[in-house]
């Protein structure tokens, strides 16, 4: 086999292997095949905890997560916020006790996008500089577009 033919075959194989793996989305980022939008508004510790535990399970199964925190749940995005109590995890989870903000940080480290609602900061005592590093402020247009996309399931807590 000639070098030219080998290089052509290698280029073809690379093209086939990467074709369709990711495409650009309307936000300028990469759109994976499996995405989910989790909207969390509850101030309930158990609801926040379960939303984070389920989000973690989805992420472990390959889902590209985006999390929108509104109302009292927006506090999870504030730098230094600490829940008053920890929650006990189910027997199948060896973590023992966790806090929702701890799981949120872990999700972010593994690539989850996190935003607070556009009206969270103007209606709280916090400013944008109070948010954890990497947390954004959702713009209504792009968020509505994500919510309307039939390929992106929306889960609310």
From TrEMBL:
<dbReference type="InterPro" id="IPR027396">
    <property type="entry name" value="DsrEFH-like"/>
</dbReference>
<keyword id="KW-0732">Signal</keyword>
<protein>
    <recommendedName>
        <fullName>DsrE/DsrF-like family protein</fullName>
    </recommendedName>
</protein>
<feature type="signal peptide">
    <location>
        <begin position="1"/>
        <end position="24"/>
    </location>
</feature>
